[in-house]
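INTERNAL AUDIT FORM
Audit reference: QA-55
Scope: verify that the stored structure record matches its stored sequence.
Auditor: D.O.
Record contents follow.
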Amino acid sequence: MKNYLIILLFSFTTVLAGTLNIATAANVSYALPQLIKEFQKTHPQTKIQMTIGSSGKLTAQIMHGAPYDIFLSANMAYPKKLYEKGFALSKPIVYARGALALFSTKKRDFSQGIALVLDKNIKTIAIANPQTAPYGIAARQALQNASLYSKIKKKLIYGESVGQTVAYAVTAADLGFIAKSALFSPKMKQYKEAVNFKDVDPKLYTPIAQGIVLLKHATDNADAQSFYTFLLSQQAKEIFKAYGYSVQ
């Protein structure tokens, strides 16, 4: 009888303390801790695990059976692909629109805008890999539309995700094209606008509409479904705005 009660209590605790797994594009990882903190005010027993990477690589993992419940992508193309191939329960929805920033740890003449990449003192420029990271696509597109890409192509070093690109921009590169959201993380707040960074002209790249899907692994996971709903709420939108995203 004791063993039976222990099993019942353990099962009840397990139900209360739900777990969900999120696959998130690196640019969103800066805002997610605050989003999780707010969600857990009403769901204190829910455990949320994050896997951070480039949208392309996370999509490949999901298609190979990775047990994620929610996918926060840096574009709409990857979530759409997952939905069309039957890996998602929900159609892709735009949860936020990201922005691209030009960044340096050193004081630079950002009045030049994107033309700063031509500066003779700029030897290396970090961007995310355009093959797997939407922010890399946006950076390359901005350079191409400004007629600068072919002139500075040899200066480029590539991060596997925009998160790794931020690391390169801080430690190894003279300049970096990063997600604006990264500038709101505690480690980056020391850097100043017009001194260390400037927004890339949004007219130079296609708007970065970022999509979310609830994945099939979450079919019986009420906590995952609740967090998915929360991420589309007005409360979550205000947090995204605080991290440099635009929302509707």
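Auditor finding: record pair retrieved intact. The radius of gyration is 20 Å.
Action required: none
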